[in-house]
Amino acid sequence: MCAQLLSTQPYKGTRDFYPDDMRLRNWFFGKIRNSLELAAFEEYNGPMLESLEMYIAKSGEEIANEQTYNFTDRGGRRLAVRPEMTPTVARLVAGKIGELNFPLKWFSIPNLYRYERPQRGRLREHWQVNVDIFGCDGFEADLEVISTAVMLLKGFDADESMFKVHINNRRFFNDVIAAIAGTDAEGSRKVSKVVDRKNKVTREAYEKDMAELGIDGDKIAKIDALYTMSVQEAAALCPESRGACELLELFSALKNAGLDKYCVFDFGIIRGLDYYTGTVFEVFDEAPENNRAMFGGGRYDNLVGLFVKNTNITGVGFGFGDVTLENFLVTHKLIPDIYNQGTKVLVTRFEDVPYEKYIALTDKLRSLGVVSSMYIGVKKFGKQIDYAVKGHYSHVAIMGASELEANTVKLKNLSTREEVTVSLDELDGYFAN
Ligand code: HAM
Fold this sequence. Notes:
Blueprint: H1 19-38, E1 42-43, E2 49-51, H2 52-58, H3 61-67, E3 69-72, E4 78-81, H4 86-95, E5 104-108, E6 111-113, E7 125-134, H5 139-154, E8 163-169, H6 170-181, H7 185-197, H8 203-212, H9 217-226, H10 231-235, H11 242-256, E9 263-265, E10 279-285, E11 293-300, E12 315-321, H12 322-331, E13 344-347, H13 355-367, E14 371-374, H14 381-390, E15 395-398, H15 401-405, E16 408-413, E17 419-423, H16 427-432
Helix pairs in contact: 2-3, 5-11, 6-7, 6-11
The structure holds histidyl-adenosine monophosphate (HAM).
């Protein structure tokens, strides 16, 4: 009897990345890394496993209790596979707080795990670009992270018809809810949870949840009205609020920087994570089929303080995932034919030429910076060409006994079918063009 075969499927909600998939992911993360480095962000990383407490302390109930993969290790420590990167980066900053050169501009591209119901735009494992600035309390840092988010999408030739940055402010939210409903800080926090769920539940359920917090009729109508207001109209409802002033300052800076066409005020942006204290924002794809946020972020004043006493180092940043980004790029046809990029040479082999001559030719190509490989194994010439075509090689190098004797190699361009015989000493000239 046969033993039962094991499944080839990856664990639910995770993906295998075959070379074609990796090529795509490396392409878009490569572009992102280049853009971030150009803007002088520096890359960091941390471990996959962190203490579960970090997420219980600040990320909020949904992430800590429902979405972490957690376990107790053999030493009795309660650990979580990281569901997000922000607590980790706050820990790193706190760990060297005396040595770092603030304001810090840092980025990372970790893989994260969340126990979610897999669906379009949401998986259990995703890679998330994290961009954060630490040590600048002013609007300048908020402006810098939002303009970086816009810059990254523009780097893929996206324009304002394809995405919008939806912006709100947690302090403003609390103050305006207090002004409308007379809530205290805890009351406003509870209201924020209901508002955050608004689009996921029926109107009836929303009103019922609000009523339980003492908000109904007229007060609900006043809150509804906030969704259609401009930032100036909304801020005028509580002009003394620090959050309202921050919103006005940020929107004015965005306008002066020419970024207002990418941005809208949106009272519905709360963010599910508990640590945000000021500006909060999400970037949405304008295509209705991708209705999930692509980027999410905001300002957090108290995270570094979880790890060191008496610090006032604040952070602001965002995360965005490969799943939603890929949906966005595919939907808006922003992925070029990346397979046709660059030169890649297959050195074909004949059995009557000594093997080491091919090794030397391949080495020479590599020393010139040309991506190249020798055909490994023995196959008829035609089969080697098939292999080159399927493997996205741009050229084949042909060196039979006669070329070897003449110290030359024939280079065939597989897309134009053009063939050129080049002296081995002049190979660099051929590839320099
Ligand atoms: P978040 O809103 O939980 O924020 O996630 C940010 C982005 O990561 C989402 O907009 C989405 O693109 C992607 N994402 C999140 N969960 C999943 C999932 N299950 N599957 C696919 N993609 C997902 C944070 O994580 C914050 N720590 C971001 C941040 C950095 N805030 C400040 N700095």
